[in-house]
Amino acid sequence: MSLLKSLTALAAVLSAAGPATTALADMPDLGGREVTIVTENTYPPLQFIDPATGEAIGWEYDAVAEIARRIDITPVYENASWDAMIPAISEGQYDMAMNGITIREDRAGQVDFSDPYLRSEMLMIVRGDETRFSDEKGFAADPDLLAAAQPGTTPFYVTVYEVLDGDESNPRIKLFETFGAGVQALRTGDVDLALSDSTAAQGYVAASEGALKIVGGPLGSEDFGFIFPKGSDLVAPVNAALAAMREDGTLDTLNRKWFFDYKIGN
Fold first, then answer.
1. At CB < 8 A and 24+ separation, what contacts does 82-85 make?
2. How far is the C-alpha of 247 from the C-alpha of 67, rounded, in Å?
3. Which of 63, 97, 95 is nearest to 80 (CA)?
4. Which among 185, 202, 153 is positioned nearest to 194, based on CA atoms?
5. How far apart are CA 201 and CA 121, in angstroms?
């Protein structure tokens, strides 16, 4: 199955899944309440800086704009690094975060998640001229090959436990503060592999003009959600908006726009 067909199938699965919807007439009304939302803007096509305009754009920005319209909130965006994001939300420094955040049980002890808004698969990104390996087994078998990862992220743990030997301190894993920095290291030859969910992988490969490619098959799937401080009263209204957007086709429209139609840099 092609990657395009795979993404289409995943979008269809997610659109068919999820909780019962809420009628628009019953949508919560938060009266224009200001909601501070933190993100990193390094995760195309979910959220990133448009190289042509310098504007922060992406799937998540469009989704939050639609959520805001439906439940009447006023988003105010802040920027923070990934490693600081979950602790900051846990401490109540921000009202909400959007950053392609995987819904995981260990994180649910620190923050509350929205319902899933997107499902993605973990993929291997390599340089366009890579011929030394074509899947995770080939990478693992060559001790000279290095992988880029962000500590504490799903790609880090997939690299450790599904690609390498389960040793979180394996010297073959080179840590970077941002995913973008790891991709840049891949392009310059400092590492040989970067793992990402299919959304970001597609974005970076499409923008690379052949400098990057995807090899091997998916290494499992993950669901993304927005996060909030524990006990936040925003969770239920956001979930109501997401449910309505799933039923009326808005999420499908966003998937088509950002995964199939939009070309970064155009």
1. 82/40, 82/42, 82/150, 82/152, 82/153, 82/177, 82/178, 82/179, 83/150, 83/151, 83/152, 83/177, 85/38, 85/40
2. 14
3. 97
4. 185
5. 10
Per-residue pLDDT of the chain (266 residues; tens, 9 = 90+): 333 334 434 444 444 344 333 455 589 999 999 999 999 998 888 999 998 899 999 999 999 999 999 999 999 999 999 999 999 999 999 999 999 999 999 999 999 999 999 987 889 999 999 999 999 999 999 999 999 998 877 788 889 988 999 999 999 999 998 888 899 999 999 999 999 878 778 778 988 999 999 999 998 788 999 999 999 999 999 999 999 999 999 998 998 888 767 755 55
Q: What is the pTM of this model?
A: 0.66
Residues 6+ apart with CB under 8 A from 175: 149, 150, 151, 156
